[in-house]
Amino acid sequence: MKYDFEQRPDRSQTDSVKWGGLKPNELPMWIADMDFKTAPEIRQAMQTKIELGAFGYEWPGDDYFNAVADWYEQEHGIRLQTEWMIFTTGVVPAISSIVRRVANIGDNVLVQEPVYNIFYNSIENNGRHVLSNNLKFDGHNYAIDWEDLEQKLALPLTTLMIFCNPHNPIGIVWSAADVQKLADLCARHHVVLLSDEIHGDLVREGASYTPSFAVTGASRDNVISLVSPSKTFNVAALHAATAIIPGKFLRQKVNRGLNSDEVAEPNLLAIPGTIAAYEHGHAWLAALKKQLRANFTWAAEQINTQLPQVKIVTGRATYLMWLDISAISHDSAKVAAYLRQATGLIVSAGSIYRGNGHDFLRINLACPAAMVQDGVGRLIRGLSAYH
């Protein structure tokens, strides 16, 4: 089947966070949702459910958990046990719930800056402290500072680490050795490893990512993986995700927290939408990744040719491009504001991700080629004119 990645659905008259309330000529390429219709197989499953006309209470059954397990076996080459899984209404609600359940008020929750900004909300809004093992940047690539990481894991008040796997906004696909070493260090220092794997299906090229639940040895009982079809299939408003927790004791603790916080019950479309995505979405995802590769290749050629002062520092995963603008400015918030005012292009200021994000912009390339061309053109004009 040929899927349509050329037409952009018009969401301007909907409740879209991305497209609502824009001024004329503004082009949003910031928040991480896609400007493609989701797979027709998912839309059909939702339509069938709506046509039933009865929407009472629901609960995920074996068909839901088997669909998740099937997906990971076929897409990532690892079969997980269905008893490891708990349904939850989203990765972010689950993170906040787990922060409250696993870490105590005043504890350190370790992250690796620059990293997804909502992690900070989940930590700080719940009275815990952000402690960062900043990723090392050599001007071209990022890497884990292992010595600093172990020192901070060893602190008595560090009880939880939130790992971004693959990494947002940088797009790093962590190696199997990195994931295993990280899990082993966390277990050694009695720190629970919470792995946000929402971008795991979006490795554009090369080998798949390594889920944290795939680590071996005793460390596996100390990890929590959070997965969802939301980024993969552009169904963020579906509010469906899965916590994968091999360790029985940790799984029971998280399960109590998710249910106490009322973030473990599906809406009417969450189950049929997720099952359709995971059982019938393989071909659509392959076509999506082909389109993303074309978008990234074109954008990189234009930026490298016309904006030599900007460096692309982007890994193999996500549909988000991470741009080093340090040769232009060390104030990415100011540059992002200028781009919006001068060209109408809306991108994310890297400063919201902390760490060295003040030197970066993040732009979303999950959109039709014509929109990529428009947005990158505005980016080039704006940064070329910026003083």
Tell me what you see in this structure.
It is a single chain. This protein is of the alpha/beta class. It folds into two domains: 27-37 and 282-385, Aspartate Aminotransferase, domain 1 (Alpha-Beta Complex), CATH 3.90.1150.10; 43-280, Aspartate Aminotransferase, domain 2. Helix content is 39%, strand content 14%. It has twelve helices and 15 strands. It has helices at residues 40-52, 62-76, 91-102, 118-124, 146-153, 176-188, 230-233, 248-260, 270-280, 282-306, 332-343, 369-385, and strands spanning 27-28, 85-88, 108-111, 129-132, 136-137, 142-143, 158-164, 192-196, 223-227, 241-244, 311-312, 320-324, 345-346, 348-349, 360-364. The strands form four sheets. The protein has a seven-stranded mixed sheet, with helices on both faces. A four-stranded antiparallel sheet has the order 11-12-15-14, with helices on one face. A hairpin with a 7-residue loop joins strand 11 and strand 12 (320-324). Helix 3 packs parallel to helix 4, helix 10 runs parallel beside helix 12 and helix 11 packs across helix 12 (369-385). The longest helix is centred in the C-terminal third of the chain and has 25 residues, at 282-306.
Secondary-structure element sequence? Answer: EHHEHEHEEEHEHEEHEHHHEEHEEEH
- Could you name the CATH class of the largest domain? Alpha Beta
The strands making up the biggest β-sheet line up spatially as 2-10-9-8-7-3-4
Describe the main β-sheet briefly. 7 strands, mixed
CATH superfamily of the largest domain: Type I PLP-dependent aspartate aminotransferase-like (Major domain)
Predict the CATH topology of the largest domain: Aspartate Aminotransferase, domain 2
| Alpha-beta classification | alpha/beta
In CATH, the architecture of the largest domain is 3-Layer(aba) Sandwich
Cα-atom radius of gyration: 21 Å
**What general outline do the C-alpha atoms trace?**
globular
Distance between the termini: 48 Å
Helix percent band? 25-40%
- What's the number of extended β-strand segments? 15
Distinct helical segment count: 12
List the domain count as a whole number. Answer: 2
